[in-house]
Amino acid sequence: MASSHCFAPFVFLLLLVGCSASGRPFYPLPSKLADGDRQPLQTSRPYNIAHRGSNGEIPEETAAAYMRAIEEGADFIETDILSSKDGVLICFHDVTLDKTTDVAEHKEFSNRKRTYEVQGVNTTGFFTVDFTLEELKSLRVKQRYPFRDQQYNGKYTIITFEEFIAIALDAPRVVGIYPEIKNPVLINQHVKWADGKRFEDRFVETLKKYGYKGSYMSKDWLKQPAFIQSFAPTSLIYVSNLTDLPKIFLIDDVTVPTQDTNQSYWEITSDAYLDFIKDYVVGIGPWKDTVVPVVNNYLQTPTDLVSRAHAHDLQVHPYTYRNENSFLHFNFHQDPYAEYDYWINEIGVDGLFTDFTGSLHNYQEWSSSKEGDEKNASNLLHKIASMVSSYGKA
């Protein structure tokens, strides 16, 4: 999808800042050029959710990855929200900086390595909560996986939650955001705000500051769509008292308990729990292998999780879909489009978190066109049949 002219200057500005070595905090305000008539969010097919941006092509959680995802047709851009030491909300997935930044190359930070308990496991590394925003901005982001394109390593910085929102609001069409309240237990332990607020408060305050409000499919929501997601049910319940924006309860592997309530997978996917949590969320976001178990890289019989969730009027947005052969199960014969077809048409999910936004968009466009062509062809045949029938009677 081509970018509009009004988007181009903003893209250039963000890229310029991403390459800057100054480390200066940057808080762009939306230009409001998008307040006119824009193509609305599509709601007729499963949502294309750009997982950490189009990170199959460009390093995750960067301005460039999110802008690429918008260009490629994402309905929502997804991000993970953590905090800096000085309480600024940032877009970053891991609680440590080691895997996707060049922090190890910065000698000035060599004494920052710490060991903290993260979800019951002692974890050692350079934690975001031990760096100010200015220090985080001095780092450069790199590609997580060695088999992906490495040419963008070192070109982009960590961005803030506000910068992320600005990217969505300045898009040439309506693009939703899908932020995650990431590791709230750890953040609330190590980051203290002067006014006594907690991580979740700051998170919702930021959304409100930029006009995000409204229940699912309301007029306000369709104008600026947003889903709030978290693996922590207590956080989701807490923010339910702060905003009516729709929320998604994330579900990990069957062996991983919830990070805040220590509940087992079996409990949180029971009918009783789904009946409870539906008062606070509009859907669940399960790891896809919890929906369809896998043995020796082959799909097994699907569970009934999707049908039970739908019976409780909950959407299902599984994660994560990736194009590479190392992630594709053998059933799909190295074809990511076959995987999309299976999950959309056989399993019946309502949204998909993908690292390759363009692939999912292409699949949905092509499959929609095919359906449209078949419908048009069928209508034409009916018209011809009607004409022939009338001619015969005459």
Describe this structure in words.
- The N and C termini lie far apart (51 Å).
- With 394 residues, this protein is of the alpha/beta class.
- Helix 2 runs parallel beside helix 4.
- It has a domain at 48-89 and 161-366: TIM Barrel, CATH 3.20.20.190.
- The strands form four sheets. Strands 1, 2, 3, 6, 7 and 14 form a six-stranded mixed beta sheet that branches.
- The protein has 14 helices and 14 strands.
Key phrases:
disordered C terminus; 14 strands; 394 residues; 35% helix; 14% strand; four-stranded parallel sheet; TIM Barrel; disordered N terminus
Radius of gyration, CA atoms, in whole angstroms: 22 Å
CATH architecture term of the domain at 48-89 and 161-366: Alpha-Beta Barrel
Pick out the low-confidence regions. 1-27, 390-394
CATH superfamily of the domain at 48-89 and 161-366, please? Phosphatidylinositol (PI) phosphodiesterase
Q: Please bin the fraction of helical residues.
A: 25-40%
- Compute the separation of the termini in Å: 51 Å
Instruction: Write down the overall geometry.
Output: globular
What amount of the residues lies in strands?
5-15%
Assigned CATH class of the domain at 48-89 and 161-366: Alpha Beta
Along the chain, the helix and strand elements come as HEHEEEEHEHEHHHEHEHHEHEEHEHEH
Biggest sheet details = 6 strands, mixed
Summed over residues and divided by their number, the pLDDT gives a mean of 90
User: What's the CATH topology name of the domain at 48-89 and 161-366?
Assistant: TIM Barrel
Q: Helix/strand-derived class?
A: alpha/beta
